[in-house]
Prior knowledge:
CATH superfamily: Transcription elongation factor, GreA/GreB, C-terminal domain
Structural class: alpha/beta
Strand order of the largest sheet: 5-4-3-7-6
CATH topology: Chitinase A, domain 3
Helix content: 25-40%
CATH architecture: Roll
Number of helices: 3
Number of strands: 7
Strand content: 25-35%
Order of helices and strands: EHHEEEEHEE
Shape: globular
Distance between the termini: 31 Å
CATH class: Alpha Beta
Radius of gyration: 14 Å
Amino acid sequence: MKLEKIVITEDDYRRLEWLIESARRTYRRDADRLDGLEQELERAIIVKSDEVPPDVVTMHSWVRVKDLESGREAAYRIVFPSEANVAENRISVLAPMGTALLGLRSGATVEWLAPAGMRRFRVLDVEYQPEAVGLAA
């Protein structure tokens, strides 16, 4: 299966590369998650913050998704690990769901292996994207 390209801003790319490098030195138990994020970055199209389309999931975006199995909809914010809080729907970019959603556009379908099994979601809408309102993530 050929993976679609994803879109990442230059700023997010730099911060995520730094996250991967620093986390590899400190959190060896997260090696698989770091490898997954690194693989996503390798297939990314890198753009300037003011060139990213407003329907792309960037860091700190709020994204509305639909679980294609249950039909349940929810909104999540993709954040750095230190900002994650499941109770507030802030999902770490290192969580399988966060990594899978980063860089996707509205309308995209994504699947990933979660602890409970294979999950499939559709990106319904990017409700908020920092770059779209002139803010850096």
